[in-house]
Amino acid sequence: MLTEDQMNKVCTVVKAGGDLATATGYAECDTRELVNTLDAIKHFAKEVRFAEATVELQHMTNVLKASNAKDGRYWRASVWWLERRSPERFARRPAGAITPTQLKQAIHTLNEMMLQKLESPADQQRINDSLTEIIGSIEFLIDTQSASAVMKRTERLRISHNASQDSQVTAPSPTTSPDESAPS
Hints:
The chain is mainly alpha-helical. It has helices spanning 4-15, 20-26, 31-40, 42-68, 75-85, 87-90, 100-117, 121-167, 178-181.
């Protein structure tokens, strides 16, 4: 379970437009702790969902305003944000690609169909357990990919920051006093 301070940090990140992988990094917790807390503390889960929806709505509103505005300066930034924040819903996908949510739904449907065909409760339980484990593995991979993307982005920023510091040229300080440079 997260502490009150960790829950506040999660909300801060989500309200700023960050994803849950970023929020767990900032709150110094792991995904499982966050999920357990979201399951256990319903008002916290509601607050996180509301924050996510509010930020997404702001960007969707920017896109809508830009489509009706003469200059439409910021719509590309908002589309970029939406594609990266919720790629499952907004990013371009190749034809025939399925989202993780669609895959989980297909496994759930397969599970229901198989359970109807099996008469033995023991067989039903084994199938249900196996498919539930597969869904858990998919969710873990999704969480890992999200965390990995955040870590790669952080590393790129660190490298970029170090490179810009290395390439900065500082102006040399004057070595002569005004008296030395005056003609005698």
